[in-house]
Amino acid sequence: SIVPDTRPPAEAFLDISNRPQVSNGKAKCIGVALTNQMGEPCNTFQQGEALVLYYEFIVNSEIDVPICGAVISNDKGVIVHGKNNWEADVMLATGLQKGDIFSCRQEILLDIAPGDYVIEVGFASIFLLDNEDFLCLSNDEFVSRERRICHVTKAAHFSVGLATRNGTRFLKHHGVADLPSKFLLSAIVGEKPDE
Asked: DSSP E strands: which ranges in 6-140?
């Protein structure tokens, strides 16, 4: 069942009625919403802010263990991020029946370059037996056992602008993504090079 306080307000849901869906008929995407961390409808963010993506599917026939995920691409078609719940070590250890609604709330930290982006959402499954030891599956084993059910290629659009520091807009990093990094600085003060 859907946990009521994780579902965004109705005004956050996008009109996906004209968005193409690729499906094997076992499920259909019935809702996609974008919000900020406060749950307010939002499609414009600053670098470093979190986007909350919510998407749900209605199940048309029995499905083994559900998998959901999203892919973010920039305006040049480059995939800058993609993650599903298996990759995040979060599983719903049950199958689904006809009429069930499967939902996913995914919070994504936007440590990416300023620009325009598109989100693809997807729904897949793996056999219940596989779920019992999913932490032991290699990526190749997971991919070979995964069954794609439905995905919406251009489910949502959003943009990222410069971050703000002390009331001033600034660029947090160069390039597509801000990878975690550490700096150690030192200076030798007062020393002059030999002449």
From this structure: 21-23, 27-35, 44-46, 50-59, 65-74, 79-84, 101-109, 115-126
pLDDT digits (tens, 9 = 90+) for 67-84: 999 999 999 999 999 999
Task: State the Cα–Cα distance between residues 92 and 3, nearest whole angstrom.
Answer: 13
Of 102, 116, 112, which Cα lies nearest the Cα of 156?
116
pLDDT tens digits for range 144-164? 888 999 999 999 999 999 999
Q: Which of 57, 50, 18 is nearest to 34 (CA)?
A: 50
User: How far is residue 177's CA from residue 193's CA, in Å, rounded to a whole number?
Assistant: 39
DSSP for 59-81, please give it. Answer: ESS-BSEEEEEEEEEETTS-EEE
| Residues 78/113/31/15 CA torsion (nearest 10 deg) | -90
In this structure, are residues 25 and 60 in contact, taking their beta carbons and an 8 Å threshold? yes
